[in-house]
Fold these 2 entries.
Entry 1:
Amino acid sequence: MSNVPIKGVDVYQSSSQFIYQFLISLAVYINPRGLARIIRSQPEHSATTSINATHVSYLRFAHHQGLPMAGGGEGELKLLGVWTSPFVIRVRVVLNLKSLPYEYVEENLGSKSALLLGSNPVHQSVPVLLHGGRPVNESQVIVQYIDEVWAGVGPSVLPADPYERAVARFWAAYVDDKVGSAWTGMLFSCKTEEERAEAVSRAVAALETLEGALAECSGGKPFFGGDAIGFVDVVLGGYLGWFGAIDKIIGRRLIDPARTPLLARWEERFRAADAAKGVVPDDADKMLDFLPTLLAWIASKAK
Ligand SMILES: N[C@@H](CCC(=O)N[C@@H](CS)C(=O)NCC(=O)O)C(=O)O
């Protein structure tokens, strides 16, 4: 399955900026390689909104023409994934946030491709991001790699301040440690309903802790990242599709508006964001239909 999402660029702030962008776009079509050189010469952190828009125009064009991807990010992007994977979803949200064109390849974990096995020989897991053919593994590493390589393109996912960056990394690690292990317990490793209930309690306790983290990190703003989606948002947001499916299995909400009201509002905002649409699954029944396939993969691995 191949899917190349090209997101709209909605960053024009004035009509003069629009005209400027139009002229630059024209230049892209007339002399794309020349423009690539100009964009590459921009210092990464001094990129302005219009350079961003120009850059995205160039990226779209370059992707289709097989030209270099500007801004230190030369080379095509290919993502190996599975549509339900929280780890894959977070990477796709970040690629969308930055309007980076990429080829998405759906893997069959029951019969992994030679490309996946060769690109991630250590864990043989998805996601794998291939950038100009070079693999980057581990979803949190991939997200940070994208943020660094395309630092001047679209919003930054990690905070600029080193202390805030450390705090964001702490909570992202907490999510994969506590929520991630409870997610595995609720869906894949529980053998009885009692074991599932125990994993649900662990998930709920972790979410209550994250309710406090959201209050602190956001400072009353919509996301962990403040006004915009940040690192902790994408890491936790990757699990939302499965939370919807688990809600159906257990007959109540994991992100319960009564217990964790901030997180419940956060979930609505995250799901509604353009970057999450079409990537964060919203069809719980479809997820549950896919669960036996995942369980069969896991069982075949254990043999
Ligand atoms: N820590 C990894 C976890 C990746 C992971 O567990 N991916 C699963 C899919 S959700 C996978 O590919 N499993 C295949 C396997 O382990 O053989 C990351 O963040 O990328």
Entry 2:
Amino acid sequence: MSIQYEAPLADSYGVADSFPKDFGYGEEEGDIEDSPTPSDSKPRILLMGLRRSGKSSIQKVVFHKMSPNETLFLESTNKIYKDDISSSSFVNFQIWDFPGQVDFFDPTFDYEMIFRGTGALIFVIDAQDDYVEALGRLHLTVSRAYRVNPEINFEVFIHKVDGLSDDHKIETQRDIHQRANDDLADASLEKLHLSFYLTSIYDHSIFEAFSKVVQKLIPQLPTLENLLNIFISNSGIEKAFLFDVVSKIYIATDSSPVDMQSYELCCDMIDVVIDVSCIYGLKEDGTGSAYDKESMAIIKLNNTTVLYLKEVTKFLALVCILREESFERKGLIDYNFHCFRKAIHEVFEVGVSTSRTSTQPAGTPLMKTVALNGTPRSTV
Ligand SMILES: Nc1nc2c(ncn2[C@@H]2O[C@H](COP(=O)(O)OP(=O)(O)OP(=O)(O)O)[C@@H](O)[C@H]2O)c(=O)[nH]1
């Protein structure tokens, strides 16, 4: 494997373990503004579930680069932990990690306010444990939330599946799916849709699941997918992912099916690029950024596959998978990429100006749409 690597200038970040929260490359002309939304009114993604189901671990591994083994030492969460990831991520939202047992009857717990501003509710079920109690809790939580805000996306993570055999995984998913939907049918809540994912922090499944959760909240997803389709079909590229670099969530991909291996390969490439950049990309005086406008990398694998990464915005990178022979037309690919990048910036600039002109009456609840760094703010 050869790596042709153009190291971007790195900031005073440490190595991979202490990955920066903010890549820190400054505003440029036409750069996308940070959201002026006060943090408490930002749309949110809630992480709920029984104690020790793995909520804090998911949040730390996906958004804070914690290694899965370190989560063994996480202490139990005792109050709602609000994590505002908008300064480091394309996705301009808050993640609220709830303590295991939320008491809906506690008068200090204003669940109506919480659910009103929620885009997605992720309910985490520990698949290695007896999940009967968790299913009861799931039902109570989603039915309450649905009554307050039927626009919420309800996502169920059947978590810690690394401990299960393949057959057992499928059987567990089928059983949980069946029971959860039976409970909803009994309560005449058939319209409430639950989506299920098998997840583990020990592989890429948690990033893949989070990607899907976030994609549902991106209003411009069809436009992004279209742009990716046009880009790859005119450039001889097999697969392209638009990544939020810090979290490795892919916010869009072309319409060909995603196979887990390709996704993992692209995630690994981002890790390599950022790690090398953090170690060798520093200026002598320690200034610079681990990810900036110059960031790009080409990795040629021994099976005639090429991985090509390029910066799109402050938070986003395009990672493509293509054959070596297609890469011979690198000039064409680069030209098409230039057009693609310009189009993405235009989508976001239109978004920002739309949000500047749109007025939202005071007190209007923020609904489903999650605001993005560089995309329209919530307009409901
Ligand atoms: N095997 C396995 N263990 C996991 C996984 N995710 C989390 N864990 C472990 O589960 C335990 C509990 O994780 P936490 O993240 O603290 O759980 P929590 O839901 O936030 O717990 P509370 O704060 O008490 O509500 C830790 O020991 C984690 O290492 C996973 O995907 N697989």
